[in-house]
Amino acid sequence: MRIDHVAIAVNNVDQALKNYEKLMRVDKVHIESVANEKVKVAILELQDTRIELMEWNLLLRTVQLINFFCKTEKDYITSPLLQTI
To answer: The domain containing residue 62 runs over which residues?
Structure first.
C-alpha cells in the first residue's frame, strides 16, 4: 500500500512551496488556479507520491461551508456567522 497524495491547506502557496522545496527533493512542480473556487494549488511531484499545497480565499470558503451544512435557505440567511461577515 502507498499514499497517492497528501493535500495541505496553506495561507500562501508561493511561500509554502519555497519551504517544501528546501526540505524535500521535489522532482516536478505544477501550479494551477481554479478561478471559480478562488483556489490556487501547487502540486509537488515526489519520487513515488504527490503533495498538494492549497491556498484559498478564507472568507469565500467559510461561506461555502456554511451553505453546505445548512439545510434550508432560512438557516443560511439567519446563520449567526454569516451575519458577522
So the answer is: 5-84
- Global confidence as pTM: 0.62
Alpha carbon separation from 14 to 19, 40, 55 (Å, rounded): 9, 10, 9
> Does position 75 have pLDDT exceeding 60, yes or no?
no
CA atoms within 13 A on the CB side of 59: 4
- Degrees to nearest 5, angle at CA 39 with 34 and 41: 85
Binned at pLDDT 50, 70 and 90, residue 53 comes out as very high
Q: Say which CATH number the domain at 36 has.
A: 3.10.180.10
Tally of domains in the chain: 1
Q: Quote the pLDDT of residue 61.
A: 67
> With pLDDT > 90 as the criterion, what percentage of the chain qualifies?
25
Q: What is the dihedral of CA 72, 78, 80, 82, to 10 degrees?
A: 80
Residue 61 C-alpha from the chain's centroid: 9
